[in-house]
Amino acid sequence: MIYKFLEKDLYGFIDEKGNIIKEPQFFVLLPPSEGYISFLGESGYGYLTYDGNIAKILCEMKGYEFNEDMAMIEKDGLMGFIDKNFNQVVEPKYDMVSNFSEGLALVENDEKYGYINKNGEIVIDLKYVTASRFNEGLAIVRIGEKQGYINTEGKFVIEPRFVRCSLFNDGLAAFEERDKYGYVDIMGNIVIKPQFDRVHDFSEGFAVVEWDEKCAIINKKGELITPFIYDVTLSFNEGRCAVGVFKGEEERWGYIDTSGKLICDMKFESAGYFSEGLAGIKKNSKYGYIDRDGDIRIKPIFDFTSDFSFGLGEFVMNERNGYIDKNNNVVFYSKNKMNINKYVMNRGIFSVL
Fold first, then answer.
1. Which of 101, 118, 138, 197 maximizes the CB count within 10 A of its CB?
2. For the chain (length 353 residues), average pLDDT per consecutive 10?
3. Is the pTM of this model over 0.85?
4. CA distances from residue 161 to 70, 188, 337 in whole angstroms, order as listed
């Protein structure tokens, strides 16, 4: 595994023991994906392998993340795809493309959307005003003023009848009717009637819903597992959900379990998702980590923290970034300061490799 770090305006990489294997030299990094990291350096755009070696320089093209063995490329404002051998499978000829999902990629030309396969063949004509990627076998397309769902063969599974709807997650999708939101199943049956002011995708069998400017959590039967008492919430992850309330101009956060029970008091200034059994929290203006029981495992002493991944969590202290393990051992701490504005702007898109 390798891990990125930032010094001044340049990114470098360390190994899992904290040894520097690539001195800071990259202007831009995209998130790691399927064995490669897309970068921008002095020589142009290219790809690194997870051991830090340069696999390919693209020179005149920009390369994006890999997904389903394909990566988007861009040249002169037009987009196409390369495969993992860095062969150009689809020449840059589309105004827009999306990552492959379930074997198909959304493409657009002249404000019309359709889908191609991994051979670059158009399998669903570019005829839709708007369209989405595929998820759980279905994609959203718009006909006239209504949205519906097609399968990967381009056939409607749910005819266009929604003003607004979301992709399927956990077998359910949100839809709007008369300014209220509910959920349908993959056959188009209404399983939770439209009654909420706003809704969010299901995750781990639960969804955040909003009514009268308050949040609650429901299960897939539409039953409330919490009252409408929260002002802000995240979604469930690793069996826990961060919930928050406003105290004057401040926020106070805690966590609930899948029964809706608080596992720790509402005492944090901010709270993140659980990852590898730990979640980043903010207390007394500093960041640390708690475990799934709500107990502090790593004291909040940092200026920023990122999710744990592959056993390490990234932190920032005194404008220098580093990594810490779950036993509170600092594995790496940069010698030089970073451009903190660049780090804050980009930290959400990077993760440990």
1. 138
2. 92 94 94 93 93 91 96 97 97 98 98 97 97 98 96 97 97 97 97 98 98 98 98 97 95 97 95 97 97 97 94 95 96 95 69 41
3. yes
4. 33, 10, 54
Decide if 127 contacts 139 (C-beta within 8 A): no
- The residue behind tokens 């392998």 is 49
Side chain identity at 328, as an amino acid letter?
N
Q: How many beta carbons lie within 10 A of that of residue 174, not counting itself?
A: 25
Q: How many Å separate Cα 43 from the centre of its chain? A: 29
CB 25 within 8 A of CB 8: no
Q: From CA 77, how far away is CA 132, in angstroms rounded?
A: 21
What order do you get walking across the sheet with 96-97 strand by strand? 96-97, 105-109, 112-116, 122-128
β-strand partners of 109: 112
Amino acid at 330: V
**Using CA atoms, how far apart are residues 313 and 76, in angstroms rounded to an integer?**
38
For residue 118, count other CB atoms closer than 10 A to its CB: 16
User: What is d(CA 260, CA 254) in angstroms, rounded to the nearest whole number?
Assistant: 12
Q: Which amino acid is at 217?
A: I
